[in-house]
Structure formats: C-alpha cells, structure tokens
C-alpha cells in the first residue's frame, strides 16, 4: 500500500509539473537570467538579490561565451580555476555538474556560484535565521571574491553591498535599492581601500597605493634606466578588486602600473612608475611605457563609463606632462597596437575620440555643479553641524540621528537642460555614521531613493547612479533621516554632471 501511495504521489507530481510547464517555459523564455537566479537561490537557500549582485560586480551578468577572465574565472558568477584558486572545481564537486558545463552554461554556472556561496556560509556557521539577513552574508561574500588580503576582501564585498544599496537593472534582471546593514565582522578592522585619504600613491596624488607582488614586475630606475615615452591602455577582463588581487598573486606573472574602477573612476597604483610592469607582452614596450588597466571586458560597452574615461584621461595627462610624452595616438596606444600583441584590448567599444579629447583638455565643456552644505542647501534645525572629520568637503558637514520621518536635507541646483546626469556624493566616513543612508534623487519620473553605507568610502566622490533630471532651479538631491540603518546620517556635498 505504501508503495502504491508513493507511485500515485509521483504520478500526480509529474502531472502538476506537466500542467505548469507551458507557463513556466514562457516565463523562462522571457527572462531566462531572472529564472536562473531564482532557481539557484532557492536550491541553495541564498538571497537571490545578493547572488545577482555578486554576478553583476564580477561580470555585469555576461558569461562571455565561456571565455575565461584574466585570472581564470568563468561565467557570470566568475568561477575561478587557476594555480591557487579552484572555485570552479569546488562548484563541480558541490553540484555534481561537469566542469565543462559550469564553464559554458549560464544556468549551471549560476547554480554553481550559489552552491559555492552557500558552502562558505556553512563554513562560517550561518544558520537558517542568519541566512535570511543579507547583511550577515558579508563574510561569505568577502571570501567568495578569493582576494589575497583582508583589505582586498573588504573592497570586493563592499562593492557587492554597494550594489544592493544603489540597485541595478541589466539583461532582464532588476535588483531594487534596499536598506541593508553589512555586518563586516572581522573585516571591519581591515583598511578601507575605498577611502581616498589612505594608502596614497607614490606617483599620482589621486590614486591609492596597493603594491603588486614583487615577482610580477621588474625593479628599475626609470626614466634614467629606460626612457618613458608611451602610455598603454588595457581592459582588465575582470573586476577591479579581482584584478588588484590577481596582480598580488605570485603565480600571475603579470601586472600594470595603475587600475581604474568603472563605476566612479577610483584609481589604484600597483607598480611604481620607475619600475617595469609586465603588461604589454613585449619587453621593449614594457620598458618604455606606463600601463593602465580599466575594469571591464572588451566585449561589453557597459563598463566604459564617463567617470572612468575622465579619471583615466586625467591620469594619462599627468603621466604625459611628467615625462614629456606627446598627447597623441602615436604615444597613447591600446594593448592591441603593441607589436606582436595577441590581445585585442581596449577593443571596439573603447571610445578613443572621447578619451583623447579628455586627455588633451578638449572635453572640458560638460556642465557640472558642486553643491556643499551651504548656499543652495536647506535643512531643518534637527540637523547639526560638525567639522569633526578631516574627510569633510569644505569647512563642515551636517548630521542627524535616524528617525521614522523623512526630514530631508536638500541640495539645490539649476540644471541647464533636461537630460541624463551622473550624481555623486561626498561624505566623511566613520564607524558611527549611518550604515544605510537614504539619498533621494528628484528625477523626471519622480523621486528615487538609493542607500549608501556612510561607515566607509568617505573623503571622495562616490557615484550613486545616472538619472534623467528635468531642467530648472530646484531641489535635486536630498538626504533623508528615515532609515533602519544605524548611526548618524550625514549630508556634506553633491556633484551633478551632465552626460
């Protein structure tokens, strides 16, 4: 009898699956990526949006047709197989799927990434209750990035959690901005590489300094040992944090002088200008050049933001002025132009016209306005004034305790035309500041709110997104007090740039 009941139950399940199959197939056909993340998250009890944020931070949800990243990562989840890291093989062990399928099949790759993330969470002791809180997954996310140091692990995890706060939409998948307090745990003590005021670059004042492994470049005394007469533009084929970590890996046998982040143009120097980085694949060109890596993939134009172009162009202009290099396309070249090059970067999506106009100073006509917490700024008496932090913009900044009411501080600007604008914010960071500060942007389609962790990344401009804004003189960006995040909410300065 028990066997008969089981057979009947199995038959009924099969009928239910068959009955639901057409609708399910239609959904999967319409949004296959969303369906894949839903299935993987459910199968391994990981937060769906957190899993998607990891994928977006790694690859912008692009599997690159099974081609590996520079560090040997595959698929949208960047499952890695290199001499020191084997998350691809780990995913195969956990899922029972062959390595070949995990490399090339997007659904399998996402399932593998979810399995790896869950296994890390289990190692860290996250129980069922803890797994329901996205903020408690921070340590697992930090380990998923396979970074070489705690500082880089924090840089990686902070990028993922920043995406949760700001939200994103790509390839039929949408992650809405949300309040989330990242529980950094042991990583709270690690240096915040997002803070512009720490680990200053020895050669370029707008960069931070994270040295590459000494086995990945040649020590030298340029320009006395070799003249420097070229700047070579590269694309990382990987993420910002992942590339920095790879250059610190002794098995990489590769490096560049500088790495630039896509979202906001943040710049890290890894090899001194005087030393020879191994980036060109041609010893003669290595000795005579400065190599600049740009976060992203050759095949995906979404990585090449205006913020990246402008930051890179400012760096290149600085290098050219310092070493007397002509600012032209003979001396500022792509990796693909190096004699004997097997690489194609920066590729067809890199806009050389825009880039060179910024390098030569011809692209400076874009409208931009910076609004500090004075002048075109309003806030109630509930907002205090402080000059405590040296990371502040200008003389001081405003702060208030979070409450269950908006009471926003507003930054006002006179926008010259309706169009697309990049909005950046400046705030001093401190462990006592808000873990999920709500920034309100008055867009042409209504107010949009994004959330920023003000405990880290202060003392510099942080992009919170690109928005369509209406022309006119009005309140454009507000900082609300209505948040479940802990710590003072800070309003310091905003910058609005027409694209």
TrEMBL record:
UniProt keyword list: Cell wall biogenesis/degradation, Hydrolase, Signal
Occurrences of domain N-acetylmuramoyl-L-alanine amidase (ranges): 216-347
The keyword Signal belongs to this UniProt entry's keyword annotation: yes
EC number per UniProt: 3.5.1.28
Organism: Nonomuraea roseola
Coiled coil: none
Secretion signal, residue range per the UniProt entry: 1-25
Protein name stated in the entry: N-acetylmuramoyl-L-alanine amidase
């Amino acid at each position: 009898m028990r066997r008969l009941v089981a057979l009947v139950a199995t038959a009924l399940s099969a009928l239910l699956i068959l009955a639901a199959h057409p609708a399910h197939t239609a959904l999967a056909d319409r949004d296959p990526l969303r369906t894949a993340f839903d299935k993987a998250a459910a199968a391994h009890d990981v937060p769906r949006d957190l899993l998607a944020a990891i994928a977006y931070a790694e690859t912008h949800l692009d599997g690159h047709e099974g081609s590996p990243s520079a560090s040997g990562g595959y698929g949208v989840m960047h499952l890695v197989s290199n001499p020191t890291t084997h998350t691809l093989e780990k995913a195969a062990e956990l899922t029972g799927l062959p390595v070949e399928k995990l490399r090339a099949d997007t659904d399998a790759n996402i399932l593998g990434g979810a399995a790896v993330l869950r296994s890390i969470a289990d190692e860290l002791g996250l129980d069922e209750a803890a797994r329901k809180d996205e903020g408690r997954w921070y340590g697992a996310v930090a380990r998923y990035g396979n970074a070489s140091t705690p500082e880089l692990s924090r840089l990686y995890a902070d990028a993922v959690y920043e995406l949760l706060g700001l939200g994103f939409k790509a390839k039929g998948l949408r992650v809405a901005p949300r309040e989330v307090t990242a529980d950094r745990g042991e990583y709270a003590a690690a240096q915040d590489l997002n803070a512009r005021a720490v680990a200053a670059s020895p050669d370029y004042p707008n960069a931070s300094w994270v040295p590459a492994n000494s086995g990945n470049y040649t020590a030298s005394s340029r320009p006395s040992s070799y003249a420097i007469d070229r700047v070579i533009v590269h694309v990382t084929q990987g993420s910002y944090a992942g590339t920095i970590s790879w250059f610190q890996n002794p098995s990489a046998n590769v490096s560049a002088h500088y790495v630039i982040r896509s979202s906001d143009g943040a710049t890290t120097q890894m090899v001194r200008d005087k030393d020879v980085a191994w980036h060109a694949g041609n010893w003669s060109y290595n000795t005579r050049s400065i190599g600049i890596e740009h976060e992203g993939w050759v095949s995906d134009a979404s990585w090449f933001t205006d913020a990246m172009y402008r930051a890179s162009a400012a760096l290149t202009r600085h290098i050219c002025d310092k070493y007397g290099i002509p600012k032209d396309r003979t001396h500022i070249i792509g990796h693909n132009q190096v004699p004997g090059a097997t690489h194609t970067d920066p590729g067809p999506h890199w806009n050389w016209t825009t880039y060179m106009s910024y390098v030569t100073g011809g692209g400076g006509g874009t409208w931009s306005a910076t609004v500090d917490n004075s002048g075109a700024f309003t806030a109630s008496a509930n907002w205090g004034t402080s000059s405590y932090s040296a990371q502040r913009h200008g003389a001081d900044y405003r702060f208030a305790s979070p409450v269950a009411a908006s009471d926003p501080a507003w930054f006002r600007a006179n926008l010259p035309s309706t169009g697309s604008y990049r909005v950046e914010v400046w705030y001093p960071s401190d462990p006592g500041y808000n873990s999920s500060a709500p920034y309100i942007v008055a867009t042409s389609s209504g107010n949009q709110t994004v959330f920023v962790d003000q405990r880290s990344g202060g003392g510099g401009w942080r992009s919170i997104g690109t928005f369509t804004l209406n022309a006119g003189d009005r309140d454009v960006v507000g900082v609300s007090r209505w948040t479940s995040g802990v710590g003072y909410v800070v309003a310091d300065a905003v910058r609005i740039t027409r694209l």
